[in-house]
Design brief:
Length: about 350
C-alpha cells in the first residue's frame, strides 16, 4: 500500500509541474502578442487617418466642381444697333481678387472691335479676351453679310486662385446693316417711263475733287493666308470739309465745298489685289479713283473726297469699291444721304 501511495503522489507532482509550465507559456505568448499589436497599431491608425483625409479632400473637390457660378448682372446702353455703332456695358464689382473676360459667339460676316484709350482692337469670336479688373466695356459690331444678326456675348469673372469662373453674365445685341437689302421687304417693280429727249449742253469745266487718304494705326500686324480669300468692304464715316489737305468733320453749306469721308477695309484673311473706288457727286458727275495699293487682312484705308454742294437740301452719295479678287461683292458699296444746311 505504501508503494502505491508514493506512485500517486509522484504523478500528482508531475501533473502540477506541467500545468505550471503550460500556464507560464500561455502568459509569455500573450505578452509577446501584446507587444506586436502595440508596435503595429500606430501605423495602422496613421493609414486610416490619411485615408479619411484623402476622402474628405476628394469630396470637397467634387462639391467645388458641382458648384454653379453666381450670376453677374450686366447693364447695356442699348439692345439694338446699326453696324459699327457702339455698345457700352457695365457690371457689378466682384469683391475678390481676379480678372474679367469677354467672349462673343461666332457669326458669318460679323466682327467685333473693343475700343479704349489706345484706340480699337479686333477681337476673335469664341475666344475669351482678358479685360483685367475693369467694370465697363465699349465695343462696336460690324455685320457685312446679313442685314440683321443677333450677337450673344458673355462676361465672366475668374478668381486668382481658381480655374473655373465664379461669376458669369450674358446678353445679346441685335446689329443691322442698312446697306444690305431686307429679304422680307417686297420688291416693287418700277413702271416704265417714256424716255425724254435731252439736248446736251456743253458741260462747264469741272475742277477735279480733292482726295485725302488719312493714315490708320493698326494694333495687330496683319498676316496674309496664301490659301485664304480677300474681302473688301466699305462704309460711310462722316461729312465735313477739307482744310489744309486734312478732313475736318462738320456741316456742309449749300452751294459751298464739302467732303465725304468713308472707309475701305479688308475683312478677309488674305491680302487683296489692287482696287479702286467710284463716288457719285452732287454736280451729277462720278469720280473714278486711280488704282489703290492692296490691303492686308484687317487693314483699312480712310479716305475723304471733296465736292461742290449744289443748291439742293440733300444728296444721296453712292460709293462702290472694285477689285479682281473678291469673296463677295454684297458689301462693296453703300448709299448715304447727306443734308446741306
Amino acid at each position: 500500500m505504501n508503494n502505491v501511495t508514493i506512485e500517486v503522489e509522484k504523478k500528482t507532482v508531475v501533473m502540477k509541474s506541467l500545468a505550471i509550465l503550460g500556464l507560464i507559456f500561455i502568459i509569455s505568448f500573450i505578452a509577446w502578442l501584446s507587444v506586436q499589436i502595440v508596435a503595429v497599431a500606430p501605423s495602422a491608425f496613421s493609414s486610416l487617418a490619411s485615408l479619411a483625409s484623402s476622402i474628405s479632400d476628394a469630396r470637397e473637390e467634387v462639391v467645388e466642381e458641382m458648384k454653379e457660378p453666381e450670376v453677374l448682372t450686366i447693364q447695356s446702353n442699348t439692345q439694338t444697333i446699326t453696324t459699327s455703332e457702339q455698345v457700352v456695358l457695365s457690371w457689378d464689382d466682384v469683391d475678390a481678387p481676379g480678372t474679367y473676360a469677354f467672349v462673343y459667339e461666332c457669326s458669318n460676316g460679323v466682327t467685333v472691335e473693343i475700343t479704349g484709350v489706345d484706340g480699337f482692337r479686333n477681337i476673335a469670336c469664341g475666344t475669351n479676351y482678358n479685360l483685367g479688373d475693369i467694370q465697363n466695356l465699349t465695343f462696336t459690331v460690324a455685320s457685312n453679310e446679313i442685314r440683321s444678326t443677333d450677337i450673344a456675348y458673355t462676361i465672366s469673372f475668374l478668381r486668382s486662385d481658381e480655374t473655373k469662373p465664379s461669376h458669369i453674365g450674358s446678353g445679346t445685341v441685335t446689329v443691322t446693316n442698312l446697306a444690305i437689302a431686307d429679304p422680307n421687304e417686297p420688291v416693287v417693280e418700277a413702271e416704265e417711263e417714256t424716255p425724254e429727249v435731252v439736248v446736251e449742253e456743253e458741260a462747264p469745266a469741272v475742277t477735279p475733287p480733292v482726295v485725302v487718304e488719312e493714315p490708320e494705326f493698326v494694333f495687330e500686324i496683319p498676316v496674309s493666308n496664301p490659301n485664304g480669300t480677300a474681302d473688301l468692304t466699305t462704309r460711310f464715316l462722316n461729312v465735313g470739309e477739307i482744310i489744309n489737305n486734312r478732313f475736318v468733320a462738320g456741316t456742309v453749306e449749300r452751294d459751298e465745298t464739302g467732303a465725304i469721308q468713308f472707309e475701305v477695309r479688308n475683312i478677309g484673311n488674305k491680302t487683296s489685289e489692287s482696287w479702286s473706288f467710284e463716288v457719285s457727286l452732287p454736280d451729277g458727275s462720278t469720280y473714278e479713283s486711280t488704282t489703290q495699293a492692296p490691303l492686308r487682312p484687317n487693314e483699312r484705308a480712310t479716305l475723304a473726297l471733296g465736292f461742290e454742294a449744289d443748291g439742293g437740301s440733300s444728296f444721296t452719295f453712292e460709293v462702290s469699291v472694285e477689285s479682281d479678287d473678291e469673296r463677295t461683292e454684297n458689301n462693296n458699296s453703300f448709299r448715304q444721304i447727306v443734308s446741306f444746311r
